[in-house]
Give the backbone structure.
Amino acid sequence: MTIQKTLQGSALTVAPEGRLDTITSPQLESELRADMNSVTDLVFDLANLTYISSAGLRVLLSAQKAMNKKGTMVLRNVKPEIMEIFEITGFSSILTIE
Amino acid sequence: MQTKKTISGTFLKWLLLIVGVAFAVSMVFSWTLQTRLSEKSAHNLLRLNIADVRQDVIDASDANLLALTRDIAAEIDLGAPTDESGLLTLMAHHDIAEINIIDANGIITSTTHPDFLNYDMRSGKQSSEFLGLLAGTEREHVQSYQPTSYDPTLLRKYAGVCLAGGGFVEVAYDAERFQRDIDHQIVGVTRNRHVGENGCIIIADENWRIVSDRRENEGANLVATGIWIDRDTMPEGDVFTATVYGEDSSCMYVFSEGYYIIAVLPENEILLQRDTSVGLTAVLEVLVFLTLFGVIFLLVRKLVVNNLNRVNTSLSKITDGDLEEKVDVRSNTEFASLSDDINATVGTLKQYISAAEARIDRELALAKSIQQSALPSVFPPYPDRTDLSLYATMDAAKEVGGDFYDFYLLDENRLAFLVADVSGKGIPAAMFMMTGKTVLRDYAERGDSPAEIAENANEKLCEGNDAEMFVTAWMGFLETDTGLVRFVNAGHNPPVLIRDGEATFIRQKANLTLAAMEGVPYREQTLQLRPGDLLFLYTDGVTEAANENEELFGNDRLQKALSKRFGSGEAAVRAVCGTVKEAIDAFTGDAPQFDDITMLCLYYAGNAPAANAPQETTGASVIGDALTVTAKADELPAVTGFVNRSLESFGCPEKTTAQIDVAVEEIFTNIASYAYEGEPGEVTIRVREEDSAAVIEFRDRGAAFDPLAKPDPDVTLSADEREIGGLGIFMVKKSMDDVSYKRENDENVLTIRKNFTK
C-alpha cells in the first residue's frame, strides 16, 4: 500500500493505493495525523483503492469526525466494490461521496 | 561368400607347382640322358669285348699256323723233297690245304696247287705282303683269314717261313682246318668272360655252329640262342637287339677268322644302370627341392606373413580407437617404409581430430559463455531493497545444457522469478533455452499474468518446434508488499519452502510442460510467503545427481539438507544454494556431473522491518485444506492468501472473493485482538466448497466468546454519534449468506458461508 499526499495550503489530497486493511490502516492513520491540524479541506482520492475492511472504515470515520469540527471532507472516485461496503455499513450516509 | 586365401597358402600352392614342374622336367632330362649314356656305355662294352675275343682268336690261329709252317720249313731244310709229289706228301701228312715254295725272286717254283706254279708274289696285294721275307726284314709272316690274290673266291690263311737255302715256304689252310685245330682254345676264350654283369660272348663258325658259349651249348646251332644274323642288312660292329636265351638283349657281332664273335648284354642290365642313376638323381632332387621349399616357405613366413600379421595387429588397435599405437615392423626396408607410412597417416589423422576437437570445444565453450552471460549474474541483484534477497547459480555440466533461471522486477512491487529446464543437451537445447527465456520475459514485461505468460509462451514455442523439445518451468510473481506469490508450474519440480527451519515441497498439481502441445490451458496458483520465508527453486540436475552406485540424490536428501535455519537476507540465500551444492558434492563423490545443476533461492523479508524480528514466534503451516497461523494481525496476508488460493481453485468470482476477503479479515482480526487476551495462540482456518458456496471455518482455543451475540451497531446514526469499532462482525453478517458460532472441544468455531455462481 502506498499513499500519495498533496498538500496545498490548508487543502490536503490523500490517495491511498491498494488495500486498506488491518495492517495498512495504521499507516494511513499516522499519515493523516501528521497534517490534520492545519487542514480544513480534506479530499480522499480512492481511484486506486481496491479493498477496505473495518479497520480502514475506522480511519475514515475518525477523519470524518475530526473534519466535522473544522472543515470539510470529501471522497472521490470510489470504486463500486468499496462503495458496496460503504452501503452495507451505512457509511454512505455519513460520508460525503462525490 | 568367397573365402580369401592366405598369402602363405597361395605361395605354398605356386611353390609346389613350380617345384613339381622342375622335378618332372629334370627327371625327363635325366632319364633321356641316362638312357643314352647307358646305351653308349653298353655299346662300348660290347665293342671292347668283341675286340678282345677277336684278338684272342687271331692270336691262337696265328700261333697254330706258324708252328705248322715252322715244322714244314724245318723238314724241307732237312732235305724233304720239294717237288709236287713231295709237297703233296707233306700236305697230307700235316693235313693242310696248300704248300708253296717261293724262290728268292718271289716266284712260286713248286706248289701243291698246279694253278699257282710260276705265280709272281708281287702281282697281288695279299701275296705281296710276304715279300718282306725275301728282303730280309722278317723271318716269318702270318696273315689273317682272307681271300687270296689269285682267286678272291678262295679264302685262305697263309703263313710264310724263310728257308735255309733262300726263298721261303708258304703254308695255308682253310677255316675248317684251323678251326679244328683251335676250337678247343676258342672254347676257353668265352668260359670266364663276362660282358658287364650278366652279358656273354658267343662264338660260332661260318655254319652257325656254336663253338664257344658260356652255357656250354657248343655244337648247337646259333638259332637256338635266339640270335639271327643277316650279314647283308646287319653290318658288323652295329648294335642289334635279339632275345637271347629268353632275355631281351643288345647284341653286336664281328666275323673274324671264320668265326662269328657275338657279344650279348641283357637290356635289363643296361636299363638297371639307367634306372639306378635316374632313381638316385630323383632322390637327390627330392631332397634338394624339399630343403629349398622349406627354406623358402619359412622365409616367406618370417619376412612377409609374420610381419603382415604384426602390422595387422597394430592396425586393429588403431581401428579400435587407440591412436597412440605405433606400427613398428623394421625387419626389412619394405616393412619399415610401410610402418613409417602408417604411422605418418595416423599422426596426420590425430592432428586433424585434435584440431576438430579443439574447434568444437572452442565453439561449445563460446556457446556456454553466451548462455551463461544471458543469465543475470550480478548478486545481490537489488542491493537497495530490504524486502527481498535473491541468489541463483547454474552449474553447467561438461556439455552446454538447457537449464536457465531468470528474474526481473516488473514494477516496484512485483518480482518475476523462474527456473526452467529444456529437454536434452547440447547446442539444440541451448538454442531452445535462449528462445524460451526471451519469450517468457517478453510476455512478462508486456504485463501478462503468469498463467497468460505460460499459455502464450507455450503457443510461441510450439510453433516450428520440429525438434520436439520441451521446457519445464516454474515461474512466479512475488508481490513484495504482501508476500503473495502467483505462480504457474509447467511440469517442473516442486519448489521447497523453508519456514522456521522446516523444508516442505510446494506440491500442487502441475500443468503440462511448455512446447509440448498447442492450446493447453495453464492454471495459475498462489503461495503466501511470510516474512522470513525462503523459497528454493531448482532443476532436476539437483534431485537426479547420481553417485558412483547410480543412486539419485532425490527429494528426501534435498528436504533434509534444507530443513534447518539459514538466517536471513543475502547470507541466507547464498547459504541455501551452497548447502545444497555441498550436499550434492558429498553425495556424488567422484562421479561425473551429467546434468546442469541450477538453483534459485528467494528470501522474503516483507515490508515492515519489525516483522523480521519475531520470526520465530510466527508460524503458519498448511496441512491439507487447513492453515494454522499464530493469532496475530501480522498473519493476515497469509490467511487472505490461503483463502484466496482456495477460492480461486473453486472458480469463485472476483467480487465474491473481495467480499469474503473482508469477512475473513474482520473475523481473523477479531480473534487476534480478543481470543487469547495478549497471550500467544493459534488459529486454524479451513476452506471448502459446498453446493456452490464457499464455507470457511475459524477455530481457536481462546476463551469461549460468541461475537455474534453482540448487538449490531446502529448504522443510521450520524458520524459523530457512531462508535469507533464494532463494525467488523456487522459487516460479516451483512455480506455473508450465513454466519454461525459454536463451542466444540474447548474451541471457538466460527463458520461463514457465501454462495456464489461461477
